[in-house]
Amino acid sequence: MRVVLAEVRGFCAGVQRAIDIVEIALKKFGSPIYVRHEIVHNRHVVDRLRAKGVQFVEELSEVPPGSLTIFSAHGVSPEVKQEAEARGLKVIDATCPLVLRVHNDGGYYAAQGREVILIGHAGHPEVEGTLGWLKGKGRLISTVEEVATLRVTDPDRLAYVTQTTLSVDDTRAIIAALHERFPTIVGPDTKEICYATQNRQHAVAELAELVDLVLVVGAKNSSNSNRLREIPEARGVPTYLVEEPAALKPEWLEGVKSVGITAGASAPDDLVQGLVELLRDKYGMTELTTLPGVKEDLHFKLPPQLAS
Ligand code: SF4
To answer: Which segments of the chain does DSSP mark as H helices, in order?
Structure first.
């Protein structure tokens, strides 16, 4: 069996920064440290940090007043920031700078008096945070079909922004439908789908041309991992999301001669290496190659509290 690794795959700059923030804060300030929501959507990352003494909460009401609290990479609404202030929490914000850019763009459009269509997935923490920055003028849609039934106050005072981890192709179709129905709508096109999402989607599309089966290492609640799964699937290539090597099912590999592997932006590379080892030790992998692809060298600055 031949195994091909996608390039680029795995951790992005925003995820690496968020994990670094928690680890550096632990060293600098010690326990207890609270993190609101999973710092990034990966159980292995969360479990490893929990083992070092980090406490994960869903609501700030679970954090004792005055405690050090880190906001996850997905970002928070202004209401959450206000709640943290009211509780006297010491906050370090690990929101990815590319999510902050969406908050800023959305807030700017809303301040112009525009209704702002947020293209994204309901229930995702990034979407909940971004909606908060739209000053009550946000409307969430996820599909092309929803554009046709969308009710707006003034069709000539509209803007849109997008979640950072969407499918580029699906989002392009939704934006085209918005422009067709509301010709004066303004927005960033697909530029707010972040570089890491776009690079990984491009790489998995190439991978899908070369293999019989694709495995995406990533968590079920990871938006960008799910989008990576959909791309080979749409090309008729069987594709499975695997949270860890042990989740691999032998029946998936029956009759398969080549396996492609990629990983979502929040999946640690040791899980990919573990999967490769399993394929070598138990399933007769004879060849391992990595596709030539984009090399990412973006790094985001740490927040001021941790910069020195
Ligand atoms: S996937 Fe993109 S937006 Fe999300 S943390 Fe990574 S770089 Fe930031």
So the answer is: 13-29, 43-51, 78-86, 97-111, 125-132, 144-149, 168-181, 195-208, 223-234, 269-283
Same domain, 20 and 90: yes
pTM above 0.90?
yes
Same domain, 231 and 253: yes
Question: Is residue 79 flagged as an active site residue?
Answer: no
Digit-by-digit pLDDT tens for the chain (308 residues) are: 999 999 999 999 999 999 999 999 999 999 999 999 999 999 999 999 999 999 999 999 999 999 999 999 999 999 999 999 999 999 999 999 999 999 999 999 999 999 999 999 999 999 999 999 998 999 999 999 999 999 999 999 999 999 999 999 999 999 999 999 999 999 999 999 999 999 999 999 999 999 999 999 999 999 999 999 999 999 999 999 999 999 999 999 999 999 999 999 999 999 999 999 999 999 999 999 999 999 999 999 999 999 87
Select from 15, 74, 201 the residue to mutate for testing ligand 1; criterion: most ligand atoms less than 8 Å from CB.
15
Structure tokens at 266: 């929040």
The DSSP letter of residue 241 is E
List the residue whose alpha carbon is closest to atom 7 of ligand 1. 14
Chain CA centroid to CA 252, Å: 26
The verdict on the CB of residue 40 being under 6 Å from ligand 1 is no
E strand or H helix at 36: strand 33-36
Q: Which domain holds residue 21?
A: 13-96
Q: Examine the domain organization and report whether 91 and 160 are in the same domain.
A: no
User: From the CA of 286, how far away is ligand 1's center (Å)?
Assistant: 34
